Amino acid sequence: MSIFRGHQGSMIRSTLFFLGVLGLSAMACSGGGAAGPEPFVAGVPPAAAGHFKKGINLGNRLEAPNEGDWGGTVQAQDFPFIAARGFDHVRIPIRFSGHALDAAPYTIDSTFFSRVDAVLDQATAAKLAVVVDMHAYDELAADVAGQRDRFVGLWTQIAARYKDRPDTVAFELLNEPYSQLDTNWNDVLGPAVKAIRASNPRRLLIVDSVFWADPTKLAVLKLPDDANIMTAIHLYEPKLFSFQGMSWIGPEFLTTGMVFPGPPATPVTPVQAALDASWANQWFKDYNAKPAATNPSGPATVTAQLALITAYQKAQGRVVYNGEWGPQSGGAMDSRVRLVTTVREQCETAGVGWAIWEDPTNMNLFDSAAGTWVTDIIDALLPPR
Description:
With 385 residues, the chain is of the alpha/beta class. The protein has helices at residues 7-21, 78-85, 110-125, 138-142, 144-161, 181-197, 210-213, 239-242, 272-276, 278-289, 299-316, 333-350, 375-381, and strands at 54-57, 89-94, 129-134, 169-172, 205-208, 229-235, 320-325, 353-356, 366-367, 372-373.
């Protein structure tokens, strides 16, 4: 389809996208100054998408019930430290829903809002783009009808507060829709987008697929006619390798000692919970027996995920963003590095921007106060030149 459909607006947007990639974008903000939402043109990336290519999450910090509850806080020195290593953006999970009134007008606590303000200021000062990610709103997934108005009300406030931020700030509507949202997400995201567009007509919005941002569910999304939306998935495959030993995800994941790529030198005996779950039991049978080329803990699993993304991009003309991914700390470092390299290379080939997961407990990758990185993984992400 021609990129010139939509006449001058689309031509200007296309020009600004390429200037943004070159670091020359002159757009000051995406808020109230623009005339209105731009119509979507298949195959033309959002103007601000070029800011979000190589990122890192600051997880288990502002999405904890209270900052610090889960072992991490956002530090001012994090941002220049991250920028100096070559990342272009940070994704910041934030539990807005835990700091707001339950009843209309759903007012967000002013102290918490001020804390988010400070974090955005610090990121911008370090010349990092930011994904403001509404995270941990589990009440919405459990009770869509009861929480829909509150969800829209929260975004109305967030959008109004940050309408004058530059286009390096993107809004992610909701992390990993699941449960009731698997079948209701399209009905919820529409009103939220409309509320945001009232004050931010051209802000980049990120919309996750359902079933925990699964790539298999991309085609389920029904997005408004809006040029400045990109979709998001989370590519944690192979999950039984990436989350090995992590009790919080479920007992089937407690088998450890797995490698990437499989098969292992000596067959692994999975924990009983994995044997009892038919999907996990079959996975381990294949892991122990199949060669690396077809092993479920191997590159073919990642390739299959990227194939889904590429098919969606071709069919829908939308940019896809890998907002979370990465092997947690339960696996051996050499295997983790091989998986990180595989995902990074395949995302780059497919033109998929990414933000690797990082948190102080399950996947710690840096200590800005000490000035240290987990260099094996970071060098695989951003190879030294």
